[in-house]
Predict the 3D structure of the following.
Amino acid sequence: MHFLFKWWNWLCDNVITQTVLVYVAGTLILLKVLSRIYRIYYPRVFAYLMYRVISPIGERKSKKAKRKMFQDLPEVAKKLNVNDLSILEIGVGTGTNFMFYPKGTTVYPLDPNPSFNQYLEENKKVNNHVEVKPFIECYGEDMKSHVADQSVDAVVCTLTLCSVSDTDAVLSEVKRVLKHGGKFYFMEHVATTQGTWFYFFQNAVTPLTKFFGDNCHFNRETWKAIARAGFADVQHETRRNGIMVILCGTATK
Ligand SMILES: C[S@@+](CC[C@H](N)C(=O)[O-])C[C@H]1O[C@@H](n2cnc3c(N)ncnc32)[C@H](O)[C@@H]1O
């Protein structure tokens, strides 16, 4: 007790220590407040930016490749002997892929960020050739309470595997929910060849893209995770698009 009194008196008399303490405490409080604001508002801001800025740019750049990737969806319906396809879209975002799905498709839109829902509603209106089921708010790593085993004909992930926390867990879930013979469609930006300057750049910017880009990693070797997942047949190609390396393909269960 006596020691505490002595320490308190010393503190009251020492202006420099008081100033340092005030700055440290102020900084900690400011960081706490900022991180709270970030957690509350970032998902909303990100969804808005995706809808207004990022998705329209991405759409222009990837329309042709997506059309090519999704062109065999009717074949999948034929092979699985269904009239209309059911597609689970993981990390659906604003629903940029709806326009590529065949008429009569039922889409199950899944995303952990509920702020996307309002933009999906907009997209539903302009894509009334597909039926969009209610928004499933959930992470792709664990969809067990929302999506049954072997319940969908196709699963789609575009620019999503770069952001998930556990790629292997998501791919294992993709395999679980796909019907036997069902197909997984993916278009993701990935890491380039290791040991190059570009790879060095991708690693250097990843901490920034993780923070500002909703956990987006520029340096993921997603094709390795897809190979590990144990699909019956995997087909993919890689191309460079500006500062992105795009991995595009399908995997059949
Ligand atoms: C860059 S956006 C792409 C959106 C859309 N797929 C597209 O191509 O426009 C990444 C999406 O992945 C979602 N996402 C992030 N982590 C996820 C996770 N663990 N499981 C499922 N989706 C996730 C985000 O909420 C966001 O909608």
